[in-house]
């Protein structure tokens, strides 16, 4: 199962759960928001849990509050996939103590730097453009995976290259003393103290164009292109990577909750109304997910990153909602006759969904072929 959280803007200064917190999907940090945590089954993509929190509640606090209730809803030995917001040691320990397994993304540390630099610890091929250094702790079975991704490395390279160009342009302005203190130091404001910070340029280093690549690599650092996963039990690097990649569906769920189901922005103020809105949004998403789960889909074989996989493609939530939203019912009432229902605007998606729920058993609905 996948767990993730986000936040939605709340329209109302008096909203009981509204608070200014880290903005998830908007830039105005002064707007109040409501945090929420949601969970879904990974294979079926059916959401089954959603809970609202005050807008400034941290991710670890949400996980600590929600996990005991989630444990009671899933069978023992389930895999729980979380992002680094749920990677605190006490949270991961609670998952293991409850008889479940976890896979999460965690921050790298000094031991990882040593492992990266150690030539005795070999990189293992995972797929085209991805390799891994795996380490298992014998005492607990806990396993860490250091993945190197060529795509991530290129993104880091281009980011460092842009930073280097900005540094070069900035250095050109330093000769005339044109620079800001904020370019070098951050001064915390204190209304009870009068603080003055002076910054002066002591030395300006020149560089040759042939040194450009070396400086860019220095900006990137030794961790460029590398990310770390951790699991409570040993997996192959490919299994760990596939499991973690599969959690992208919970991000799609959050996007759908906000933009398709219409949870964003919240237009209710009381705590019970906010929780009720989120419950209705969850029920809507669950109904759509169950309808999608019953659909056959289209089987496709794709070759990606040196691997051949067979996947089943099914309509996304937006397509299903659009299809059902355009379905039209016309009632024809005749004297002394039973009401007749005529459905129109059928398409392949709506036909399959209504066929799966056997809506034609009522006798007054004819699903066109």
Task: Give the count of helical stretches.
Answer: 10
Which strand-content bin applies to the residues? 15-25%
What's the multimeric state? single chain
Summed up, the domain count is 3
Low-confidence runs of at least 5 consecutive residues: none
Count of DSSP E strands? 13
Shape from CA axes? globular
Mean pLDDT: 89
What structural class do the secondary elements suggest? alpha+beta
Radius of gyration: 27 Å
End-to-end distance: 37 Å
Query: For the report, how would you describe the main beta sheet?
Result: 6 strands, mixed
- Taken in chain order, the helices and strands follow as EEEHEHEHEEEHHEHHHEEHEEH
Main-sheet strand order equals 4-5-9-8-7-6
Level of helix content?
A: 25-40%
Give an account of the 3D structure.
This protein has 369 residues and is of the alpha+beta class. The chain has three domains: 2-83 and 247-291, no CATH class; 104-233, no CATH class; 298-369, no CATH class. 34% of the residues lie in helices and 22% in strands. It has ten helices and 13 strands. The protein has helices spanning 59-71, 89-97, 110-117, 150-174, 212-220, 237-245, 248-259, 271-294, 317-325, 348-356, and strands at residues 2-9, 33-40, 47-54, 79-82, 101-106, 124-127, 130-136, 143-149, 226-231, 298-304, 307-313, 328-332, 340-344. The strands form four sheets. A six-stranded mixed β-sheet has the order 4-5-9-8-7-6, sandwiched between helices. The chain is globular, with a radius of gyration of 27 Å. It starts with a strand and ends in a 13-residue tail after the last helix.
């Amino acid at each position: 199962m996948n767990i993730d959280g986000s936040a939605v803007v709340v329209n109302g200064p008096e909203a009981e759960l509204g608070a200014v917190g880290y903005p998830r999907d908007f830039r105005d940090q002064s707007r109040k928001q409501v945090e929420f945590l949601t969970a879904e089954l990974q294979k079926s993509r059916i959401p089954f849990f959603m809970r609202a929190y005050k807008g400034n509640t941290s991710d670890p606090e949400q996980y600590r509050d929600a996990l005991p209730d989630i444990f009671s809803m899933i069978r023992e030995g389930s895999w729980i996939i979380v992002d680094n917001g749920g990677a605190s040691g006490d949270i991961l320990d609670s998952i293991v103590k409850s008889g479940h397994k976890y896979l999460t993304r965690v921050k790298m540390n000094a031991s990882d730097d040593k492992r990266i630099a150690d030539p005795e610890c070999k990189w293992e091929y995972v797929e085209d453009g991805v390799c891994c250094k795996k380490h298992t702790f014998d005492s607990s079975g806990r396993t860490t995976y250091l993945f190197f991704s060529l795509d991530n490395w290129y993104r880091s390279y281009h980011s460092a290259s842009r930073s280097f160009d900005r540094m070069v342009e900035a250095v050109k302005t330093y000769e005339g003393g044109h620079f800001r203190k904020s370019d070098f130091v951050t001064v915390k404001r204190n209304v009870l103290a009068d603080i003055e910070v002076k910054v002066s340029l002591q030395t300006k280093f020149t560089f040759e164009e042939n040194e450009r690549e070396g400086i860019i690599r220095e900006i990137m650092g030794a961790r460029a292109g590398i990310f770390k996963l951790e699991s409570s039990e040993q997996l192959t690097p490919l299994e760990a990577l596939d499991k973690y990649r599969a959690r992208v569906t919970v991000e799609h769920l959050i996007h759908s909750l906000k933009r398709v189901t219409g949870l964003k922005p919240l237009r209710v103020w009381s705590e019970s109304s906010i929780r009720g809105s989120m419950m209705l949004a969850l029920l809507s998403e669950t109904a759509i997910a169950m309808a999608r789960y019953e659909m056959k889909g289209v089987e496709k074989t794709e070759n990606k990153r040196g691997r051949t996989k067979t996947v089943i493609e099914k309509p996304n939530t937006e397509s299903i909602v659009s299809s059902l939203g355009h379905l039209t019912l016309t009632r024809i009432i005749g004297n002394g006759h039973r009401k007749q229902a005529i459905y129109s605007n059928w398409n392949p998606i709506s036909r399959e969904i209504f066929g799966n729920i056997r809506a034609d058993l009522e006798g007054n609905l004819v699903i066109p072929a």
